[in-house]
Amino acid sequence: MAKRIDVSGLTAYYGAHKAIEDISMTIEPRSVTAFIGPSGCGKSTFLRTLNRMHEVTPGGRVEGKVLLDAEDLYGAGVDPVSVRREVGMVFQRPNPFPTMSIFDNVAAGLRLNGVTKKSELNDVVEKSLKGANLWNEVKDRLNKPGAGLSGGQQQRLCIARAIAVEPKVLLMDEPCSALDPISTLAIEDLIGELKERFTIVIVTHNMQQAARVSDRTAFFNLAGVGQPGRLIEIDDTERIFSNPSVQATEDYISGRFG
Amino acid sequence: MSTPAVTDRTTGSLRGGSLPRWFPLAVIAASIVVAVAIGLGTGLHSKVQWGLIAAILAVLGTYVVAARVEGRRQARDRIATSLVWVCFLLAVIPLASLIWATVKRGVKVLDGYFLSHSMAGVADTEPGGGIYHALLGTLEQVGLATVVAVPIGVLTAIYLVEYGRGALARAVTFFVDVMTGIPSIVAGLFVLSFWILILKMGYSGFAGSLALAILMMPVVVRSTEEMLKLVPNELREASLALGIPKWRTILKVVLPTSLGGIATGVMLSIARITGETAPVLLLVWGTNFINSNPFSDPQASLPLFIYQQYANSSGSGAAYDRAWAAALTLIAFVMILNLVARGIARWKAPKTGR
Amino acid sequence: MEISTQHTDPAPPLAAPSTAVGKRAARGATRPGDRIFLGLSRGSGILLLVIMAAIAVFLTYRAALAISKDDGNFLTTFEWNTGLLPAKFGIAVLAFGTVVSSIVAMALAVPVAVGIALFLTHYAPRRLAGPIAYVIDLLAAVPSIVYGLWGALVLVPHLSGLYGWLDAYLGWTGILSWQGGAPRSLLTVGILLAIMILPIITNVSREVFRQVPRMHEEAALALGATRWEVIRMAVLPFGRSGVISASMLGLGRALGETMAVATVLSPTFDIQASLLDPGGGTFAQNIASKFNEATEFGQDALIASGLVLFVITLLVNGAARMIINRRKEYSGANA
Q: For this UniProt entry, which residues form the secretion signal (chain C) (predicted)?
């Protein structure tokens, strides 16, 4: 089920540009870890190295180790496609497949894995939509296009799509930044429920959100424009927000910069 | 939490079986060897067949090996990759052959004499002669067509972008699209019916220019429209706010800003009509002699010359040589126009952050 | 771009509904310079419409002259005899040849073009993709007469092998049997047309595939899709209407192509059962081949056939445009 992530000495590049440098941390299973930090500090880049999505960007390159329960994602012979099946992802802007129905969107990942039996698909789709707190709103229109839902519903649809394949880890890249406050609240509640089953990592710009949903918080920063982003500290969320050990963290949280 | 859907995968390793990077090359090499062996063994003469066998073997081999080692999904991915490469190679062969043939056969008789003499007194089947009359005709016809089409096209685009609202603008937009799709021979037939059959004006270079202008106009309108739309509104507002009348704003601010793009569009449309043969065949008729007056009597034209050398020469090698040389000249002309147009586009591109 | 709301006349802006803005701009242009300029540019637009109307009217008029004296049925007669009276001519053979050669061309070109477009957008190394796209752009500019010359003198001699092979293995189908004539048949025409429309279909499809939002591809990737699965899930569904309209544009070009067909086909005025046997003809090719010997009446008859071609291409291009325009709205709503 949920798995632990151990990152050691991770550096990521865009071509010649070093985006993040020498990051090491441990992410506990069945918990929510939030990444905060100013824009451009590399927190999204780091998130994308955790399921090998970083290398999809032209010029994207990674050095270092990411252990998923002791297995290195970047080890020789590891297939990025199987990594992404283990580590699901939800994006900043809701991105349901525009040409697919709600049902097909959720079933997309299962179909990739060769599940074709209708009854089985029905079960998993229902379970996933319920898991994403969306079932009651869409159960009567599963065959309507997913793009017809509201932004918040679309984002929960994307979460349902991600959890339908039973990943071990769920990465969320600013999942609420395109949503209104009510939809944001719905997603935050959902994150609270999902952490029972998954290891969740969430990137957010919103410090209140980090404080509300996460168990642990990591603060990223960069020394200056063009400099690589670094991990400043990671600790229990309460500690970070009440009594961080690094001055920069406190400055950032209290709004003195960033 | 594990559903039947997911128990059969995962549980453990991320490490699917995977094939080394040199695998595709190895399969291709092996298939070529086997195909050559089969070809020699069964006495197939056609190298094309060898190639076909090799291609089929490569695709099948990739699938079988990948399916065994990496699984069916990866195998399908590899098949798709090889099919896409095959598509690309399939398309490259005729296109490369076209260019190769034109250059190789075209340079045979292409020289200063060829460019500076007409076919006067040269029978179609004899060697000698040249394309001076055809070059002259093409330049005049295309020039006249440009003179007719560019002002109309640019003004129409200005109307659409700067003034056009409502039904008239919508109709113009729609019919410009429709006009883009008119086959060149239909444009030729129109001028034939109107200019030659009804007004009894006789075959001439200018009749051809009219048809070419019809083909050119929609292209000019479209490209000019695109370029005018790229001019930021702030520029217009800045000028209008200075109390400059709208027509001067358009002439002095909008047009100069987009001049590079408009020039590019015009050159591309010239390149397009230069190669048109069908309307010229119907309206200009063709001649072996130099006729520098486009307004009366048949003229020659480069594309028409190619066709007539090919069609009227009953297989004479000399005529074919001339056709290839003329084709090379035509391609060179069109390509130079294209390259210059792209050069202008790059050089003059409006810096709108795109 | 609401430009006409900024015109310079000193009168206060009128609160007219947007459909009337054009007229308002006209009334607002009080300066002589503005009036002349607007008159010129609007006149050009109107001239374009007049030309389109004139094309339809004159072609129809001359076609009517010819058809009224046609002793056969214009649609079904298998003959093109305009020299002797009573004249008998019909477009059945031409319609058949035009449609068949275009279908062959589409069947060959569309899959390959989509493949190349995918190759350029998703498979080719980036350093290769740019130059290749550039070369394909240039190939779209090669004049059709050059394709025709190449087709007649290079392609045709190379097709005998293929024809023999098709006859040997697929001859039993009837439509792919070969009696051994020169390979100047509708199939050859189709192959050459396919090569000619390949660049345009590739270019338009490539544009469409490039516009597939990155986030949809990433959504598929994040689900653990292979590259091919990403294309199946995100790229092809998004690009489908674009590929259809690209194909229609290619079809429009194939239908109206003249010189390349005239050079590679040995025309006869009948319908061959087999695609491989020389014979048949297309609208455009027939006009080009028969024009030189035609009397004025014969030219009118050719104009009549040209009118049919005009209508067909209008329908095809109109359909393509409609699909493109619908797609614009669709993608705009979801962007």
A: none
